[in-house]
Amino acid sequence: MKDLLTIFFGALATILFSFTGIVMMSNIQYGRLEPIVLEEGEPAYPRTPSGEAMQGKEVYVDLGCIYCHSQQVRRKGFGADFERGWGDRQSVPRDYILQKRVLLGTMRTGPDLMNVGDRIPTRDWHHLHLYDPKITSPGSIMSPFAFLYKKQKIQGDELSPNALTFPPDYENAPEEGYEVVPTERAHVLVEYLLSLKLDYELPESKFAE
């Protein structure tokens, strides 16, 4: 009985110590961080995402993108993030304070996406990449998300404004008289990807270099 009590209180103490060190100390250090205005007349950073971007984040989670992509640019000397062009600075805690669910990720089967909206700011590129990653990234092992798009008959003589433009040699382009357009899920997902930017500096990001 005495040994059981020792084990119980030992386990309880370990849990309480871990909770204090990981949860409470983190909240003390970062819990009061707020967006910061870097120059008078400019918006506060980090920016509040648009409604479409927030909807796109739900699609991102639903599709399991977090299992292959991270959203954290590591500091110099802790990997090749800078050399790969994934960001011009490391990400810091203040970058995440407006996010109710932080998608740091644990694997990098694909590139980090913390700054993908600034790195690749073209909607057409992202739509083609989602439809068939090999169009934009030959040799990519990413799964295609063609189900986020629909094929429809062209109305009139011109393509719809949001229709995908495929390379001339693309084998799976729609047949003549048809076009491929994004569904609402594809549209908001791309808006979310474009919202992922580290195109601003923070005081602590300079300090952490």
Lay out the secondary structure.
Elements: H1 2-30, E1 36-37, E2 44-45, H2 51-62, H3 116-119, H4 123-131, H5 133-136, E3 149-153, E4 178-182, H6 184-195, H7 203-207
Antiparallel strand pairs: 1-2, 3-4
Count every beta strand, where a strand is a DSSP E run of 2 or more residues.
4
Strand content: 5-15%
Radius of gyration: 22 Å
Which ranges are low-confidence, i.e. pLDDT below 50, for 5 or more consecutive residues?
Answer: none
Mean pLDDT: 89
Would you kindly provide a brief summary of this structure?
This protein is mainly alpha-helical. The chain contains 7 helices and 4 strands. It has one domain (50-207): Orthogonal Bundle (Cytochrome Bc1 Complex, Chain D, domain 2).
Describe this entry's structure for a reader.
The protein has helices at residues 2-30, 51-62, 116-119, 123-131, 133-136, 184-195, 203-207, and strands spanning 36-37, 44-45, 149-153, 178-182. It is mainly α and 209 residues long. The chain has a single domain, classed as Orthogonal Bundle (Cytochrome Bc1 Complex, Chain D, domain 2), CATH 1.10.760.10. The strands form 2 sheets. A two-stranded antiparallel sheet has the order 1-2. Strands 3-4 form a two-stranded antiparallel sheet. β1 and β2 form a beta hairpin. α2 crosses α6 (184-195) and α4 (123-131) packs across α6. The longest helix has 29 residues, at 2-30. It is globular and about 80 Å long. 23% of the residues are buried. The mean pLDDT is 89.
